[in-house]
């Protein structure tokens, strides 16, 4: 037995220096196995059958013919599937989306609703049988369009209240020297992680086991236990590697269907969504219709601010895309009103997607601020600096650090903003008109209670166990560095195991809260372990294990406005003859707390900015009102940015220290996307003189604007 | 004529022969993943629209999701599992690892196989859609960042790691020219 | 995907014999379109005849100075071929503008010509589509058609042909060669694709069971000074929303000869013969180029959401021809 001292002489700090990913070698050699790739003996394959009508009832499912096909083992539908319980509160106290309770009734609430699961010996057999399954419907009229005059529009609370307000808006607008009143829209957008949702379920020694691709093993375990009325301890969910999530990988129909089939067939069953199925089963970002009204005094100080957002939800679940939320953090005004409203439609339930609310909301708000700067004759950065609030505009709480001005100073210097000719349409390079634009970003820095266990081994190494998920964020590596520093050892002595619900409850990889929450728990465990080891006792063979729980510490945080901030810059080139828009360069400067691993952090900021670019120029799911589904529901029809769309873009950060925060880490998963679409749209205005208030900024829209301009007498 | 819907085939993968019965519907991608437990090749869309399933067929990059396994007989198939030399990573793999040319890792094997193909195609003098003058008299295009971006555009990365991917391909293209080329560049 | 028989052909006669006149048999080349359509259920062949190993993989010069391109030459090899790049640069550019490097290495010249439309209603078997199920209707006309046809369409179908390669081939008067059990034949590309009319499901004039064996490009000195420009909704790996292949011969500021074809505007590559007539003999100025485009686009019948294509093609024509004229003047 050995006595291990965690360190009185601490090695150089690991946090803050670049480390390649722990699992990097597995990822570049193909050795890393994702959920659909873990082998199981006697595996059966399930294939989901989705409704081809947008509303109605199932009249008949002709299973008999399909059951006679080669290899087919079962057809699960609302007549044959086990019953599940949906009367519970899940993640963050939310009611479950009834969409996940598959095969419970004959009603069809949207196109692409799961009506059956065909299970067969091979995936080819399951697919052919699923495609051959005849389902007859009694069709009812449906409505899927986001009409701003819809009679059922209503305010809806999300994580935050639906409506906030103070001051007399009309009076302040009337008294303003400059007013902007503009409407903006953003389309339906889909997450499309590269790895389709996949789950394999089996019963093993009386426990339900799910090998899954998700953003939180604790989350999925809890939902499955509630749905199937199981003791949470009898459900185990594992997800070693996750091929992207972006908000879409929580609990969804395929996991529930897999569990049902594994239960009925008493063998492992795998269900993988096809890319096409993901467009109705994986969630999406609601389209939004937003109106922003700003009124400013002669110096550009806001007297009035109103931001109203309308989004859609399904008829079975209420989810709100809170696009009006950014104004509650970014800008104060004497009259300040925000509202998030929804209309229920015959569509799948929308859900969280990278920077919910902030991504579409910042497009409208930060575009409107640019319009206000133009009308006030102020530099867009100067306008924003003049409107820096002293306290939370709605909450009245103090800001726990607000380093937005510093982001702008650093960003403007590096981007070369000084000396910019504010007039639009002045720069040209061959067939391209050039312009630059900027916008602000912010994202809530929250934390969720987590538990972690930390074991000291006799050989001087340590094992961290936490039900974290690495969806590409570099979480596994970040936790290793945080643990190493907390233990005052080098990272090679720390093993980190994640993605297993048996490690105890932990925060999801979502809301930019994962790494902050997990690091907190790991640090707390390490502190306790160091205290234990400092007593000098020998370490037994099984090691010394401590366990932390951050619930109390998080609850004890003093209330404050805690956010990360960023300043986004973009330069675009626009060909007015063809409508093509190319981003030439982008820069994002962020104040996002302590950066754990600069290598992976930079990558993640850049990834967020690429999402913003993709949102600005490409992404749009077109829902056909006549049939109620997405046209071209695949990666050729739904465009995400390709490599050729992305120029040399840069992301960097400034010192951002909050002395009142015990962990000092803020999330960086979402801030990168916020503001980018506005920065690009503002740059397109600067290049062409045309405001684009509807995303994406497609060639046809640019062409239509250019054609309209030529028709103007002053053009 | 007798109709059969399956065949016993022999696939030459990473220099090894594998004989297996396949349903004619089975794609090379599914044969690798579901029959041969070679899961390094990824299924992102199954429709040729993302590039995650890229492998090398007779040395040229191709999407394995649109390649029927039965039609891949007589071809030399190289997958991500076959590009390293033992424990020594291929220069493209090493560059992706060192420069963080990925995030979730799901598109990565396809990106790496594609990059290996890109470097070969460039070495053979192939132009691309962004090559200013495609006429042979203009000479082979330099492998600039713009050329790499265009040539790598058949591999979507939803995490948006494109900046690091381009850096990784550029670095690997430099080293792939061999030690002599590297020294020359450094001199 | 339903089950199917698979046969590999080793020579052209064998391939043609294997297919015979069977309606439910398809030739398999690179598979980049056919296998995808089989997965989505649009194509449901009972048998595939694999022709990838046929000896049709060469690009050869003809004695007259043209090129004979074999049907199984991959798009990648075609675009890389020095004689294609030297004599028909717009063809190389068009091929390089299509799909991705991976797909170009698989896709064949013959298969590229026979590509089906990427209309989102055609590829979704749960929707009506006159091209897929004759008489079932065309939801694109009242639905999403922002990337549909403005020329030569009908009330039965407004789909576009997705090929970039075929646009350049069309500009250069390519001839398609084929073989049938009853002998071989040739079809000039201008006659290869059938008008839409009320039979959008009938796409080509190939006889039943015919195997495309190759494409012949006539000697065409003007093609040495040619260009393909493609506009799409992202920078790469996307189908065109408008494209133009053009060749220009300018002497003393006057257009002596011109070739022009449009992509993504019709059910076929659209040879702009009306524009060519305006161009020939006229001064090589942007005004002439615009007048030529207008002459061609006078026949355009845009729908509610694709009228931008008229502007796009007009601007694209002026831009490409202006570039070619400026280069000629240097």
From TrEMBL, chain A:
Occurrences of domain Aldehyde oxidase/xanthine dehydrogenase a/b hammerhead (ranges): 29-141
The record's listing under Gene3D superfamilies reads:
Aldehyde oxidase/xanthine dehydrogenase, a/b hammerhead, Aldehyde oxidase/xanthine dehydrogenase, molybdopterin binding domain
Q: Which domain of life is it from?
A: Bacteria
Q: Which UniProt keywords are present, listed alphabetically?
A: Molybdenum, Oxidoreductase
Q: Which residues form a coiled coil?
A: none
Protein name listed in UniProt: Xanthine dehydrogenase family protein molybdopterin-binding subunit
From TrEMBL, chain B:
Superkingdom to which the source organism belongs: Bacteria
| InterPro entries xref list | 2Fe-2S-bd, 2Fe-2S-bd_dom_sf, 2Fe-2S_ferredoxin-like_sf, 2Fe-2S_ferredoxin-type, 2Fe2S_fd_BS, Aldehyde_Oxdr_Iron-Sulfur, Beta-grasp_dom_sf
**Pfam families, per this entry?**
Fer2, Fer2_2
Record has Oxidoreductase as a keyword: yes
Q: Where is the 2Fe-2S ferredoxin-type domain?
A: 7-83
Keyword tags: Iron, Metal-binding, Oxidoreductase
Protein name as catalogued:
2Fe-2S iron-sulfur cluster-binding protein
User: From which organism does this entry originate?
Assistant: Streptomyces pyxinicus
TrEMBL record, chain C:
The record, for InterPro entries, names: CO_DH_flav_C (IPR005107), CO_DH_flav_C_dom_sf (IPR036683), Diverse_Substr_Oxidored (IPR051312), FAD-bd_PCMH (IPR016166), FAD-bd_PCMH-like_sf (IPR036318), FAD-bd_PCMH_sub1 (IPR016167), FAD-bd_PCMH_sub2 (IPR016169), Mopterin_DH_FAD-bd (IPR002346)
> Which Pfam families does this entry report, sorted A to Z?
CO_deh_flav_C, FAD_binding_5
Coiled-coil regions, chain positions: none
Q: Which UniProt keywords apply?
A: Oxidoreductase
Signal peptide boundaries: none
Q: Where is the FAD-binding PCMH-type domain?
A: 1-222
Instruction: Please give the PANTHER family that the UniProt record associates with this protein.
Output: OXIDOREDUCTASE, XANTHINE DEHYDROGENASE SUBUNIT C-RELATED
The identity of this protein, by name, is Xanthine dehydrogenase family protein subunit M
Q: Which species is this UniProt entry from?
A: Streptomyces pyxinicus
């Amino acid at each position: 037995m050995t006595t291990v001292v965690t360190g009185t002489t601490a090695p150089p700090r690991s946090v803050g220096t670049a480390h390649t990913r722990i699992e990097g070698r597995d990822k570049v050699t193909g050795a890393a196995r994702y959920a659909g790739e873990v082998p199981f003996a006697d595996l059966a394959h399930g294939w989901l059958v989705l409704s081809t009508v947008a509303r109605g009832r199932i009249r008949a499912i002709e299973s008999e013919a399909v059951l006679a096909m080669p290899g087919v083992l079962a057809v699960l539908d609302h007549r044959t599937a086990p019953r599940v319980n949906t009367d519970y509160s899940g993640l963050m106290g939310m009611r479950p989306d009834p969409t996940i309770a598959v095969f419970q009734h004959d009603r069809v609430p949207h196109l692409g609703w799961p009506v059956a699961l065909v299970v067969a010996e091979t995936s080819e057999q399951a697919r052919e049988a699923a495609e051959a399954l005849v389902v007859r419907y009694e069709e009812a009229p449906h409505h899927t369009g986001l009409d701003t005059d819809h009679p059922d529009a209503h305010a809806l609370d999300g994580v935050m209240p639906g409506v906030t307000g103070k001051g007399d808006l009309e009076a302040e607008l009337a008294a303003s020297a400059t007013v902007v009143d503009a409407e903006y829209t953003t389309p339906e957008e889909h997450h499309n992680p590269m790895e389709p949702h996949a789950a394999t379920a089996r019963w093993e020694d009386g426990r339900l086991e799910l090998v899954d691709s998700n953003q939180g093993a604790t989350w999925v375990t809890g939902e499955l236990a509630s749905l199937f009325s199981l003791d949470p301890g009898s459900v185990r969910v594992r997800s070693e590697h996750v091929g992207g999530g972006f908000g879409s990988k929580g609990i969804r129909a395929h996991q529930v269907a897999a569990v049902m089939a594994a239960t009925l067939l008493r063998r492992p069953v795998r269900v993988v969504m096809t890319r096409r199925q993901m467009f109705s089963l994986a969630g999406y970002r609601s389209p939004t219709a937003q109106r922003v009204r700003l009124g400013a005094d002669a110096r550009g100080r806001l007297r009035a601010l109103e931001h109203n957002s309308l989004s859609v939800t399904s008829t079975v679940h209420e989810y709100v895309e809170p696009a009006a939320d950014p104004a509650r953090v970014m800008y104060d005004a004497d009259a300040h009103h925000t509202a998030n409203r929804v209309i229920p439609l015959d569509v799948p339930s929308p859900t969280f997607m990278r920077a919910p609310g902030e991504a579409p909301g910042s497009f409208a708000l930060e575009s409107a601020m640019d319009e206000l700067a133009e009308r006030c004759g102020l530099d867009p950065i100067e306008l924003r600096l003049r409107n820096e609030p002293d306290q939370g505009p709605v909450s009245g709480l103090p800001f726990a650090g607000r380093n937005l001005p510093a982001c702008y100073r650093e960003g403007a210097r590096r981007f070369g903003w000084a000396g910019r000719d504010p007039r639009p349409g002045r720069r040209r390079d061959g067939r391209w008109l050039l312009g630059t634009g900027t916008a602000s970003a912010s994202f809530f820095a929250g934390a969720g209670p987590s538990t972690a266990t930390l074991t000291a081994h006799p050989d001087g190494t340590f094992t961290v166990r936490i039900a974290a998920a690495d969806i590409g964020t570099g979480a596994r590596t970040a936790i290793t560095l945080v643990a190493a520093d907390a233990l005052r050892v080098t990272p090679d002595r720390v093993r980190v195991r994640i993605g297993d619900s048996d490690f105890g409850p932990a925060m999801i990889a979502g809301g930019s809260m994962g790494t902050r929450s997990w690091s907190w728990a790991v640090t707390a465990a390490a502190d306790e372990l160091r205290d234990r080891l400092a007593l000098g006792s020998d370490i037994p063979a099984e090691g010394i294990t401590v366990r932390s729980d951050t619930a109390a510490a998080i609850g004890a945080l003093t209330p404050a406005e805690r956010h990360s901030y960023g300043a986004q810059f973009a330069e675009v080139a626009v060909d007015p003859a063809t409508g093509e828009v190319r981003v030439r360069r982008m820069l994002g400067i962020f104040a996002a707390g302590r950066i754990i691993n600069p290598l992976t952090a930079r990558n993640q900021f850049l990834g967020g900015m690429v999402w913003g670019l993709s949102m600005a120029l490409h992404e749009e799911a077109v829902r056909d009102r006549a049939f109620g589904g997405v046209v071209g529901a695949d990666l050729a029809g739904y465009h995400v940015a390709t490599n050729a769309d992305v120029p040399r873009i840069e992301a960097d950060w400034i010192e951002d220290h909050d002395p009142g925060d015990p962990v000092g880490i803020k999330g960086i998963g979402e801030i990168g996307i916020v503001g980018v679409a506005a920065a690009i749209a503002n740059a397109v205005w600067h290049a062409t003189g045309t405001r684009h208030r509807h995303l994406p900024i497609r060639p046809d829209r640019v062409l239509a604007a250019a054609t309209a301009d030529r028709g103007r007498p002053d053009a | 004529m007798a109709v059969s819907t399956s065949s016993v085939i022999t696939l030459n993968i990473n220099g090894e022969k594998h004989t297996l019965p396949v349903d004619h519907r089975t794609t090379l991608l599914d044969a690798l993943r579901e029959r041969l437990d070679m899961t390094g090749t990824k299924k992102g869309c199954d429709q040729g629209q993302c590039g995650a399933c890229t492998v090398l067929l007779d040395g040229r990059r191709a999407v394995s999701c649109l390649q029927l396994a039965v039609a891949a007989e007589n071809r030399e198939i190289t997958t991500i599992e076959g590009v390293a030399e033992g424990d020594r990573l291929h220069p493209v793999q090493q560059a992706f690892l060192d420069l963080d040319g990925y995030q979730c890792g799901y598109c990565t094997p396809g990106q790496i196989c594609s990059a290996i193909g890109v470097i070969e195609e460039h070495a053979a003098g192939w132009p691309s859609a962004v090559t200013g003058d495609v006429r042979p008299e203009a000479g082979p295009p330099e492998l600039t960042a713009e050329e790499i971006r265009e040539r790598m555009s058949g591999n979507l990365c939803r995490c948006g790691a494109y900046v690091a991917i381009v850096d990784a391909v550029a670095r690997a293209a430099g080293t792939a020219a061999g030690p002599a080329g590297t020294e020359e560049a450094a001199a | 995907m339903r089950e199917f028989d698979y046969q590999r052909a080793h020579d052209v006669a064998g391939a043609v014999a294997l297919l015979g006149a069977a309606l439910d048999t398809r030739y398999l080349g690179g598979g980049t379109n056919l296998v995808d359509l089989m997965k989505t259920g649009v194509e449901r062949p009972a048998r595939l005849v694999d022709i990838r190993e046929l000896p049709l993989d060469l690009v050869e010069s003809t004695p007259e100075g043209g090129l004979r391109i074999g049907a199984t030459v991959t798009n990648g090899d075609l675009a890389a071929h020095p004689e294609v790049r030297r004599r028909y640069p717009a063809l190389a550019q068009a091929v390089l503008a299509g799909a991705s490097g991976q797909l170009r290495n698989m896709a064949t010249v013959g298969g590229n010509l026979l590509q089906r439309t990427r209309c989102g209603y055609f590829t979704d078997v749960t929707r009506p589509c006159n091209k897929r199920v004759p008489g079932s209707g065309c939801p694109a006309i009242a639905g999403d058609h922002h990337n549909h046809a403005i020329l030569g369409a009908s009330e039965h179908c407004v789909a576009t042909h997705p090929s970039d390669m075929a646009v350049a081939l069309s500009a250069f008067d390519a001839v398609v060669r084929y073989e049938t059990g009853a002998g071989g034949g040739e079809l000039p590309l201008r006659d290869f694709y059938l008008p839409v009319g009320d039979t959008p499901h009938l796409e080509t004039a190939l006889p039943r069971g015919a195997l495309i064996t190759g494409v012949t490009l006539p000697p065409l000195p003007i093609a040495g000074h040619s260009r393909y420009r493609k506009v799409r909704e992202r920078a790469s790996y996307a189908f065109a929303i408008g494209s133009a292949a053009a060749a220009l011969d300018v002497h003393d500021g006057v257009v002596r000869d011109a070739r022009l074809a449009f992509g993504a505007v019709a059910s076929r590559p659209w040879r702009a013969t009306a524009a060519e007539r305006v161009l020939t003999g006229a001064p090589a100025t942007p005004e002439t180029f615009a007048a030529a485009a207008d002459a061609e686009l006078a026949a355009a019948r845009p729908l509610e959401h694709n009228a931008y294509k008229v502007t796009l093609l007009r601007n694209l024509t002026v831009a490409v021809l202006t570039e070619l004229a400026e280069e000629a003047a240097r």
